[in-house]
Automatic annotation (TrEMBL):
Keywords: Acyltransferase, Transferase
Annotated Basic and acidic residues bias: 245-254
InterPro entries given in the database record: Plipid/glycerol_acylTrfase (IPR002123)
Protein name (record): 1-acyl-sn-glycerol-3-phosphate acyltransferase
GO molecular function, one term: 1-acylglycerol-3-phosphate O-acyltransferase activity
GO biological process, one term: phosphatidic acid biosynthetic process
GO cellular component: plasma membrane
E.C. code: 2.3.1.51
Organism of provenance: Promicromonospora sukumoe
Region (Disordered): 223-254
Domain Phospholipid/glycerol acyltransferase: 35-154
């Protein structure tokens, strides 16, 4: 109920007015049943715009820091994150990563949509980075289809360091569901997990038209913090496949 009120009464109408969200391929989201919504991650606002574009509720995981802030601001942020369906998790790795995986699987067992960013963190420069294998393991263990999504222009509205996004049209392109049932029972095979993660990331790349970097976004951020040069753009796509010839998607004409 709280989610519905936030999406349709309190916050959603304001976001729609400010960002005029648009979507291409909305019909690719199944009307019922569990599915993994796997998206590129360009800005914080992704997690607010994407749920507006999908009629069904989408549950995301969010870093626990969002729920532990102090003072009035901290309480407001925690209240807001709860209202939009974000589940707090510790993202420090190891046991925390396993707990996040289990939380996602629990959401999928309930027959709902689970949102995840395969890159593991926001892109530092608008390029698409290598997918972590968590999304692949979740897909194989749950048996749920994966819906690839490309967010569009959110990094323009909210570049790194900008708190309040610029008011402008923002959208997403949603691809056809990916079925990985052929790998059932192979979720412990690291080579299969890598292949599945790369296939998911390639599908996102084919929708977004981004430049691809064959390295993890977290590593790129660490290099930037040390003042080192950015990692070069790859001449191949995920899994060594040829780069898709796709231009950056534009808002459809009305």
């Amino acid at each position: 109920m709280f989610y519905w009120v936030m999406r349709n009464v309190l916050v959603g109408p304001l976001l729609r007015l400010a960002y005029q969200p648009w979507v291409v391929g909305g019909k690719n989201v199944p009307r019922t049943g569990a599915a993994i919504v796997a998206s590129n991650h360009l800005a914080v606002i992704d997690s607010f715009i994407l749920p507006l574009l999908i009629s069904r509720r989408v549950t995301f995981l969010g870093k626990s820091d969002y729920f532990t802030g102090k003072g009035l601001k901290g309480k407001i942020v925690a209240w807001f994150m709860t209202g939009i369906g974000v589940i707090p998790v510790d993202r420090s790795g190891g046991a925390a990563s396993e707990a996040a995986l289990r939380t996602g699987l629990r959401v999928l067992r309930e027959g709902t949509l689970f949102g995840i960013y395969p890159e593991g963190t926001r892109s530092p420069d608008g390029r698409l980075y290598k997918a972590k294998t968590g999304v692949a393991r979740m897909a194989l263990e749950s048996g749920a289809p994966v819906i690839p999504v490309a967010m569009v222009d959110t990094e323009v509205a909210q570049p790194v360091g900008k708190t309040i996004p610029t008011f402008m049209p923002l959208g997403a392109v949603i691809g056809e569901p990916l079925d990985f049932s052929r790998y059932k029972g192979m979720e412990s095979d690291k080579f299969v997990l890598r292949a599945v993660a790369d296939e998911i990331e390639y599908a996102i790349l084919a929708l977004s038209g981004q430049e691809y970097v064959d390295a993890y976004a977290a590593s790129a951020k660490e290099r930037a913090a040390r003042g080192e040069p950015a990692i070069p753009t790859s001449e191949e796509g995920p899994g060594g496949l040829p780069l898709p010839e796709v231009e950056k998607p534009q808002r459809p004409k009305r």
